[in-house]
Amino acid sequence: MKKEIISYLLHVDMDSFFVSVEQILNPALRGKPVIVGGESHQRGVVACASYEARKYGIRAAMPVAKAKRLCPDVICVPGTWSQYSYYSGKVMHFLQQFTPAVEQVSIDEAYLNLLGTERLWGHPYSVALKIQQGIKNEIGLDATIGLGSNKLIAKIASDIAKPKGIVWILPEYETSFLSHLPIEAIPGIGPKTTQMLNELNIQTVQQFLSIPSHLVKQALGNNALFLYHKAQGIDYSMVRSEHEFPKSMGREITFHNDTEDTYYLTAVLHYLIEELCTRLRNHQIMCHTLTLKLRYSDFLTITKSCQLKYFSDLSVELFPVAKTLFLSAYTRRVKLRLIGISLSQLMPHNYQHSLFPDEHLLKWSRLNHHVDQIRKKYGFTSILNADTLAVPLSFST
Ligand SMILES: [Mg+2]
């Protein structure tokens, strides 16, 4: 009889990651209700709450002002992005010892495919334990681990195991594991859908699956079948490891005629940024560093880089940075023959758009989503930013 190969996937999710990093940096914060979030007059949203703060009902994405009402003693820390990035790198580096198949899905989450590592590392559960203990002992952070036969099951398992837990859903037990969970435990079923289903008296995954699929489709539209599959624990998506992942993304344009027209040059710059941001979003990644390249007509070439404050895939954030960089870099009164932009320090874009959800950026994000749909159907130049209309279509890819 052919032996079936069962893949073991691990979902590693750091517990209250931003707060935990702050607690390493400042041990006085340990064991206290702490939130990471901007000052209330700025970006007043909780990005992360310690488990002590969660006891008061404080949750991520809640306004800081509300969190302070719920727990007047809560300690509000503004957030240290560079440190989160640093600790995230340490965790990912640690995970890569166990398998090269590590897919980082957000700053504090990754999937590992353990297929073929049993001889080296032993039983999947003991690997999970080693990872959890190693992250604690070597880095000082708590992690929760879900173990399952696919990414979806591993993710739901880790959601249930939080904090500091390990849950392993054995192969063939997926359906019974899922059936008693509330429907909102299924990734992709958000508050709106949950409310809609609850109104139809559907609370659990089992109840959801007992409705005929055509009725589900009637209630939930096109997304229904996808959710129906998920509710059955079906997920064929693969673990995309880092070496399949681009290190940088760039685009440059050599002009037909060298130019010193800064109005035209900034329009080209804007066009390049638009194009690269579209590519980022199509690959579901965000960038942290932007590099500008200028080549003068005498072939002198200069490059200048700048780090963004946050990871982003939005031209509304990247273009102002690129423009400032350009204006400070283009100093000679000599025409340019080439202009280029490259984006690096790329990170997968999961569901979370930025560290501090900002209403203005969320609006742009939604708008871009629609623009991307139009471009996928009719081509990149089917819809252009008015600022980039000066750019000849011959530059388009
Ligand atoms: Mg987490």
UniProtKB/TrEMBL annotation:
Assembly, per entry: Monomer.
Classification via InterPro entries: DNA/RNA_pol_sf, DNA_pol_Y-fam_lit_finger_sf, DNA_pol_Y-fam_little_finger, DNA_polymerase-Y, DNApol_IV, PolY_HhH_motif, Rev_trsase/Diguanyl_cyclase, UmuC
Taxon lineage: Bacteria, Candidatus Fischeribacteriota
GO cellular component: cytosol
Species this protein is from: Candidatus Fischerbacteria bacterium RBG_13_37_8
MF terms (GO), sorted A to Z: damaged DNA binding; DNA-directed DNA polymerase activity; magnesium ion binding
Pfam families xref list: IMS, IMS_C, IMS_HHH
Entry superkingdom: Bacteria
GO biological process: DNA repair; DNA-templated DNA replication; error-prone translesion synthesis; SOS response
Catalysed reactions, as listed in the record: DNA(n) + a 2'-deoxyribonucleoside 5'-triphosphate = DNA(n+1) + diphosphate
Keyword vocabulary terms for this entry: Cytoplasm, DNA damage, DNA repair, DNA replication, DNA-binding, DNA-directed DNA polymerase, Magnesium, Metal-binding, Mutator protein, Nucleotidyltransferase, Transferase
Family: Belongs to the DNA polymerase type-Y family.
Protein name according to UniProt: DNA polymerase IV
PROSITE patterns in UniProt: UMUC (PS50173)
